[in-house]
Amino acid sequence: MMNGNNIEEVWTAENNGVLENKLEDENDLSCSGTLSSSSSLINVTEEKLLESTNNGTTNGEGNSISRGNKRRRESAEVAMRKIRKDLQPNAVEEENSQGHSNSSETSENKESSCEQSECGPEKSCCLELSIRCIDKEKTIGKQNYFHLSKGEHVCQVCFDEICRIGRPYYDRYIVWKNQWINESRCKPNVRLFIQDQLLPFWIDCKKCGKFRKVLLEKAIPASEMAQFECSQVLDEKEVEPCEVLEDECVQLSREKSWIQTVSAPPLLHNSPALHYLRLEYYYDEVGMSTINDDFQLEQACETREYMCPFNIPTEQSMAFCLRPDVMEYDEVQAFPEYTGEPVLYLAMRNLVVALWNLNPKEYLTYEKCLLYLVCRGLARVWYAHELHRVVDYLTIKGVINYGILPLPAKQILSSKPSLGVVIVGGGISGIAAARQLRNFGAKVTILEAKAKIGGRLQDDWSLGVAVGCGAQLVTGIVNNPIVLMCEQSGTPYRPLSDACPLIDGITGRIATPLADKLVDEHFNCILDGIGEWKSKTKSIDISLLDQMMHLHEKFITALDFRWANEFERLLQWQIGNVEFSCGALLSDVSARHWDQNEAVPQFAGKHALLSDGSSELIRGLSESLDIRCNHQVEQLDYTHRKIQIHCSNGKKFTADKVLLCLPLAVYQKENITFLPELPSEKQIALKNLGAGLIEKVAVKFPRCFWTSLLREDGTIDYFGNVPKSEKERGLFNMFYDFSNRSPSNPKNQHFVLMSYVCGDSVNLVNEKSDVEVVAEFIDALQELFPDENIPNPIGYVVTHWGKDPNIGMSYSYVKVGGCGEHYDMLANSIQDKIYFGGECTNRFFPQTMTGAYISGLREAGKIAESWLTTNSTSDINFS
């Protein structure tokens, strides 16, 4: 990374002697009249900066430039320029040579006279800085104007007020220029100074929406902008101010192509994105002014603990983080016109995303975003039009405006014809999609086979606390939409500690710390070995268990000490944990693709437990939706334009689109007949993904007998049960403390432990009665606490997901021979009519309620995109 001295030397050498004569701004005058041309000068400067870094440090973590703790990073564009320079070393020299040739021209009239064909012969000065301004003096004859944009020009006289020594604005320009050099990656020039510091603001009236020119030294805050009216700048006695027509230049700047006429990038002032990006990025590479960076929150940001919208180079990568300096793949597809110069799109996107993350408890509207979108000149009028597209796009993609929010006043699908959608399955993915589509403006009906919605998110309160019969654990708090919905609805969740005492099932004592650490490192070596095997070999897939055991045997033969029985049992506990994660015997799981989702960043932060269950989330999401319970779908006929849905109770429905949000096991049982039958890729996917199964057991006791494990605050989250043998590794592997202690009300205390069975032990709940299962649960605890007389239980819950014909599973996994692509194949829509959601369609976040919810957002967006593409005049490219 470039250090401060290198930067200073480059600019000092380039501008040596320039301040003493006006040749400095002969270079400024050489700027071409369009933004795309001005970027070439920016790139030349970047090449010089890159050349300077060759003499300094380029490790990406170097010294700061002007602020002691500011971290800098090369943008993607600069990296591409560097590659180009390496491939074509003469190109930069030719470019620089051409630049010097242009700057050496002595015909100032030729350079300063705007000859842009779109500007026309009639021009006026938009600054009027000098008392001798051409517009004020009404000078007759051909005059010289500097081009800023179509509709914005500066006369020669006012231009001289800025760039000539001794003139009123010269000192201010030099101060600004020095600041810009220290904080930016692009070359400062007079046009950029005018754009950033001198042009008037254009503000829209809250009553009529017309844009009016406002002369201000500094931008007004959003709160004042929201109150702006035409009467504040127009003093019309004969007509109402709002009836006065807008300036002609305003209409010009509404044209989509107007931005191609600007000569300096219109960077945003005081963007809310500063809250997240301050000291992390060059502001101009993310669309923000490097000088106008005054954005402060009135109070501490409450969302920082669980929301992190932008990737920070020095921090861990995590799910749902955007790179503020690069367009995502989907963004490039939707907004291809920004591919060459993405800064202006990034400015809008980053602003919108920042506003949403600062307050995700309210629906973020276009109008609110516009209040915070501030820049000088007519560019704000152009931004205002483009901002509509950006807000709609981010909403459809589920980047903003998701969760438990009220119905918005304006809907994206408000135009005719109306969209009718039937969603089959009332789990969290189906409800999430239904709520999104309803908010978009679609007519949605949910058909649920069971008498109750929620799918695998069901709570049992019979023990006095919420026992999640299905999902209750949140894997990673930061950016997790489940946590966001908890915050939106006031649903409590409890972050979990990393501390997990392991108790030996044979000795009844906590496992030896040395043995625990040794086996943990040994197991990590096995996982690393599997990773290396995957990357270096292309052999056929084998089971995860076989590969683990192969590496285990290989490693222990190289040990210079005996592999003790305690070590082996601790290893079986680790393997049991993986079986729980997959919901299956590891002999059935793919060694090559079992963890394929970790190819992308996952949710960060601590795991959390929904201490009051998920019922409140389901209730909030399903509020005001059209839900038909006891409607089991038997047949889907999509041979006609309208899809026909037949239910077992005789009811029939028709829809434009159908979204299936069913468990993988239901598809595999072929409970629904498809006309025509499912494509071959779907059938292949169904064969290569497995329906994993775990069952839960929760028991309530009259007292807490595990007090020896409690922390100083009197709580514990969980403790492990090291199995006595390999055969028992799936039997109550972990115990979670669900107890609800109330010191102020001793009568309201509930002592509950929950565990699960998986792997070889999962059929225990079907082979034995619930009473017998609970007896084994207590026997396992008695082995862990041999000195305790464990009391008889006073209540219990045992799940039977495997027997449920409408569920039949817990979560999916990749079978031997399968791969992550099979998740994508299952997620693909059929003829833009039939869509698929649920955790089994989410390649990168499977096996979790978070992944199921995200799939609902994804499919709602896909359905809306398809409808807009074929039935709307939307100017967002979703194809």
UniProtKB/TrEMBL annotation:
Flavoprotein keyword on record: yes
Molecular function in Gene Ontology: FAD-dependent H3K4me/H3K4me3 demethylase activity; primary methylamine oxidase activity
Predominant subcellular localization, coarse grouping: nucleus
Location of this chain's protein in the cell: Nucleus
Keywords of this entry: FAD, Flavoprotein, Oxidoreductase
Region (Disordered), start-end ranges: 50-120
Domain SWIRM: 313-411
EC number: 1.4.3.-
Ranges of Low complexity composition bias in the record: 51-64
Amino-acid positions noted as binding FAD in the UniProt annotation, renumbered to this chain: S429, E448, A449, V633
One CC-aspect GO term: nucleus
InterPro entries with a match to the protein in the record: Amino_oxidase, FAD/NAD-bd_sf, Flavin_amine_oxidase, Flavin_monoamine_oxidase, Homeodomain-like_sf, SWIRM, WH-like_DNA-bd_sf
Domain of life: Eukaryota
Residues that bind substrate: Y756
Co-factor requirement: FAD
This protein's record includes keyword GTP-binding: no
EC top class named in words: oxidoreductase
Family label: Belongs to the flavin monoamine oxidase family.
Protein name: Amine oxidase
Source organism of the structure: Acrobeloides nanus
